[in-house]
Amino acid sequence: MDLSIYQFPDIFRRVHMEAPGDIEREVHFLEEVWRRRLKRPVRRVLDIACGNSPHGQILARAGIEVVGIDRSPTMIAAGRAEATGLKGLRFYRRRIEQFRIPEKSFDAAFFMSETFPVIARNRDIITHLESVAALVKRGGLYCIDIDYQGGVELVKVRTPWRERTVQVGDAQVEVREYHRPIEWHEAMHSIYELECTIHFNDRSVTTRDLIPVRYITPPLMDLMVRASGKFEMFAAYADLSFTTPIAQCCGRWLAVLRRV
């Protein structure tokens, strides 16, 4: 079985081209959305597909109680280690498609890192929204960060996309990315293959991850939200901006849902 890049928490964010200050900017934007769109203070938040919850760590240091869920035991272990001594941040290992946790309701929830499109099946999207709704107070907000997918071409054979090298501490990482073919009748937009060779001082390892990507635009998100009957979508923001038109989106967009 291939190793996964998500087994190396210190490396995977750099591989995904996360730049210094990105997490802080995302947290600031979330806080501004809450300030503008929620009429009550945010004291408890749910961090979905949290990984090691870098957003949650920032929020917890600001006095907000944060609960993170993720399916990766490695990422959760890293988050717990990084949050040692930090009150107000807890983790649960759960699948994001459908989950329950023994927690009281939250003022807000968020799903960052542009990961939401990996939920490819219709029923999984509905059960996901139902799971979140069961934990968010009525009138509470759910913010979903979605990758801009314009310009991605469908392919009939496995096709190289790009290669690059990333330095993370003493480790050098050779990154190779591919697009893979999909069946015409699938709900996915593409399958993204990420192959990394990590050269440590004493050894080299190769990881491979296949990531399904569902094509999600604001109208499609609105349709899925309406189908769930649990939320309403009332805003779509492009590239962490309150003023950039959604048609000019060039990197990612944020769907803002309200619990009904």
Describe the structure in your own words.
This protein is an alpha/beta fold and 260 residues long. The chain folds into 2 domains: 9-149 and 216-259, Rossmann fold (3-Layer(aba) Sandwich); 159-213, S-adenosyl-L-methionine-dependent methyltransferases (Single Sheet), CATH 2.20.130. Helices cover 25% and strands 36% of the residues. It contains 6 helices and 11 strands. It is globular, with a radius of gyration of 18 Å.
Write the layout of secondary structure elements.
Layout: H1 9-15, H2 22-37, E1 44-48, H3 54-61, E2 65-70, H4 73-82, E3 89-93, E4 106-111, H5 122-133, E5 136-147, E6 159-168, E7 171-180, E8 188-199, E9 204-214, H6 218-228, E10 231-238, E11 252-259
Parallel strand pairs: 1-2, 1-4, 2-3, 4-5
Antiparallel strand pairs: 5-11, 6-7, 7-8, 8-9, 10-11
Helix pairs in contact: 2-3, 5-6
Q: What is the highest CATH level, the class of the largest domain?
A: Alpha Beta
Oligomeric category: single chain
Radius of gyration (Å): 18 Å
User: SSE string, helix = H, strand = E?
Assistant: HHEHEHEEHEEEEEHEE
Helix/strand class: alpha/beta
Number of E strands: 11
Helix content: 10-25%
Low-pLDDT windows of residues: none
Give the count of structural domains: 2
User: Any idea what the shape is?
Assistant: globular
Distance between the termini: 43 Å
Report the total helices: 6
